[in-house]
Amino acid sequence: MTRLLIVDDEQIERDGLQAILRKGFPELDIAQAKNGKIAVEMAAELQPDLILMDIKMPGMNGLEAIEHISKDQPGIKFVMVTAYDTFDYARSAIKLGVKDYLLKPSKASEIVATVGKVLGQIEEERMSAETSKRQEDALRKVLPVIEADIVTQLLFDHVHEVHLDELVGLLGESAGGEPFAMCVLLPQGAEGLYAAIREKARQAGGGWVGAMYGRHIPVIAFRDPARSYRSQALALARELLSVADAGGIGGTSPGPGLSGAAGGSFVGIGGVCHSLDQIRQSYQEALIASSDPTVPVKYRFYADTPALGMVREGLSAKQWERQFFDRIRLGEWERIEADVQEVLRRCESEGADLLLGQQRALELLWLASRVLLEMGVETESPLFSVQARDYRQLRAETDLLLARMRHAFETHQERIKPDAIQQIRQYVYEHSHEDISLEAIGKRVGLSPFYISKLFKEQLGVNYIDFLTECRIDKAKKLMGDPERSLKEITFEVGYHDPNYFSKVFKKMCDVSPTEYRKTLLGKRGS
């Protein structure tokens, strides 16, 4: 219900205004105040939407009362009621935000018309606020989807500059600090903890949580300048691990050289990057740090992890590791096998203990299985069937495990329908106005979101977010040809929740604002 307060030092004036307004607007809740001081007190208690304020009153005059009330309740509207039609009063009233004025005496029709106009503004603002609240609620529901897609694109693809800054802003998070990545490895059967992990990361201010693949949950965190990197990362790792511990599934780690990832929960922590463009490397480091969950604690920094590879052909250890990851993603199995065997030959030539060589081989095999899982290729956990008696037998066992991975990879490639990406493309175009995500599409077509992202990039030349945006902007252009639709309506019809974000993306994609594009479009049709 809309509340109105009449302020005038003359009873007859207050009653007269109330009678006119009661007849014109029977739904109004009307109260009266006989001076400025009482009006200030009643405004704080009643929270009126509109005040009709007499200017000339003893003690605190109307302008002073308006100034006091507006300081604490800036949303209240005012209509000035005065017998003095002077420039000074009008100028002061305008500065205080008075919406209109009524001269004494005024006809009933003038009073109803003036008050009705302001009540109409109040109703419009109320409806706009309700719409904004619904939009905010809808945005809050879809934010986890947006967050997961951003992480997916950053770690396994590349987000176009048209979107990254805007999407980051949409999350309401600060990405100003230097980023670093973490990999949360859940134990077998704990996949249901994903939502709890995501909520814990949000509560801890831990940045963004990506979609889960296998039992891995990627996290992108941002440096807090008030804390050291290690203390911040350790605190966040412990918070995330506490979720699994609270669920009673922390588990125990297996012995060295055995199943590794089949044990309890674990967090690998990558190094700090200068920008989000480098976060993919940090996540690879986090994967490497989590490749051996047999260490006494349940977390490990990449900086504390022995290098998996070696300097070769002028490559540093980090460059070797990056090359190893890329070769797995590209399916270059001869080179992968050569890389792993060279590590074993190096261990043997340096006189390393056989158990150490076996552990190094398992670390590489485990990483290969994790990268394959990103691509939607599920493989059995790499386990040696027997304890090797010498390096010759270890090399043979390693080759056998690599052959199984290669077979799984090639079988998966053959199983993918040649027109899979076209089916996905058509689905995205038809449903682009909805809150769809790579994860949701993956469940629909039976592929991992990471593999779908890879398919988009390789076969269409654009990533998923770019294509989704192109679909939405294309539909928006078509809808702009209808002059009956407002730009705000079009924003929501094509799948955006924020008109300002839509406008920025449209301008970056089309080099003109939606308003300018529409003027040109409708102008051409009218000529």
TrEMBL record:
Keywords assigned by UniProt, alphabetized: DNA-binding, Phosphoprotein, Transcription, Transcription regulation
Domain Response regulatory: from-to ranges: 3-119
Modified-residue entries (4-aspartylphosphate), positions: 54
Keyword Transmembrane helix among UniProt keywords: no
Domain HTH araC/xylS-type residue range list: 422-520
Full protein name: Response regulator
Keyword presence, Zinc: no
PROSITE patterns to which the protein is assigned, alphabetical: HTH_ARAC_FAMILY_1, HTH_ARAC_FAMILY_2, RESPONSE_REGULATORY
Origin superkingdom: Bacteria
